[in-house]
Write a structure and sequence with these properties.
alpha/beta; Nucleotidyltransferase, domain 5; 5-stranded mixed sheet; 7 strands
């Protein structure tokens, strides 16, 4: 009888320590770079609403701060010049919807005046921006 030589099995061992190091470095990179993604803007505390829906950011945004300062797309304006500048923006815009981002502590009369000016500027739609209020669902 002929005996066959048994080959020794080659055991391969995958060292995952370098892989863990690479994943850890990627995690640190994304954590540090995500800090710079925040967009500078106007400080506004939006009111909350349970029925709030996500709305895509449009070109025409009127922001009202708690100090009653008005901004039209990041540019500070006065209430007197809002109508003229808003007419220009609405005329240039493809979608003629005006989004109003107002702080929850502003005077209601100012918000109504801004909405009236938006209607005078021939805006086809008005959207009042809110934050979504999350409820505990049983």
């Amino acid at each position: 009888m002929v005996e066959f030589d048994r080959r020794e099995k080659v055991r391969t061992h995958l060292n995952i320590a370098p892989l863990i190091d690479v994943v850890f470095l990627l995690l640190i990179f994304f954590m540090l770079s995500s800090h710079f993604v925040t967009q500078p803007g106007i400080k506004i505390t939006l009111p909350t609403a349970v029925t709030a829906k996500l709305h895509s950011e449009e070109d025409i945004i009127i922001s009202i701060t708690k100090d009653n300062n008005l901004y039209l797309n990041e540019d500070q304006i006065t209430l007197d010049s809002l109508l003229d500048k808003l007419r220009i923006k609405v005329g240039e815009a493809r979608k003629k919807t005006v989004i109003i981002k107002a702080d929850e502590k502003i005077d209601l009369g100012l918000a109504v005046r801004v909405m009236d000016i938006a209607r005078q500027a021939e805006a086809e739609g008005l959207v009042i921006s809110t934050r979504i209020e999350y409820q505990n669902i049983p």
